[in-house]
Amino acid sequence: MNCDCDLEDRLDPDLFRALSDPNRLMILSGLAHCCDEPRSVSEVATELPIDISVVSRHLSALRDSGVLAAERTGRSVRYRVRYSALAGLLRGLADAIEGCQQGCCGSDCADDSGSVLTTVGGGD
Amino acid sequence: MNCDCDLEDRLDPDLFRALSDPNRLMILSGLAHCCDEPRSVSEVATELPIDISVVSRHLSALRDSGVLAAERTGRSVRYRVRYSALAGLLRGLADAIEGCQQGCCGSDCADDSGSVLTTVGGGD
DNA sequence: TGCACGTTTGCGCACTCATGCAAGTGATAT
DNA sequence: ATATCACTTGCATGAGTGCGCAAACGTGCA
Known about the structure:
2 copies of one chain form a homodimer. Chain A is mainly alpha-helical. The first copy, chain A, has a domain at 13-84: Orthogonal Bundle (Arc Repressor Mutant, subunit A), CATH 1.10.10. In chain A, 52% of the residues lie in helices and 11% in strands. The two termini of chain A are 24 Å apart. The interface between A and B is large, with 53 and 53 residues.
């Protein structure tokens, strides 16, 4: 597919996988409301009904997928949300998706090119 | 948390769950490059190395999560990408995340309000 | 009515994953 | 050095999921 929208490169299963668990989303939401103020593992764990070892694993998963950043201070590890990176990823994905709709790809799929024009603005 | 960014409402585990499988993402990417031209289950299945019954299940999952729209024409079911809905969801989520960073929430987390200003522009 | 086609669903299997507990690691304080 | 604190890492278990095969379902055609 001769397309310039880079959609398949932006569709990362690992990122969505990290965001597919309710407890991980609660962790992300809680950290996001901290206004860039980092939180330690034990602080995050106090707000959740799961074992602190599980929280540690969830935080590591969110860090590995690029959602959170970790920083060691003394004997505690403080996590914070990578706001700009995450928002940028989501916006880039939104742009790539809408770019595909407007016919960025070549001739392999657009077997009737007129439909592109007739459906602009009328979709979902 | 007295926050007006609606972050936890936008963080839907089911949506991310639907996007967490590589084969489902290949289906979505393939359909997105069709420029709003619907594809039937069997047409989608020809481009994937998995059984058509599995493809049918994947398409249903993507439809249930709001990513795809389905329409029956004769004895075939044609799926298409809900470009605007999906892009809008992602942009709304990006806005909500960045809104949290800039201190939309109240006093429960921002225990030193000065850090909000000093970290603007210097994040991740 | 009978048949062919496209799609969906039941079922079993293999695999992944979230969870809790316990043990291990690293850093600080006494 | 020893103890304590914060976090991480095996390990086992139960739940969830992707997969293929076969049967069922729905639709259109002869």
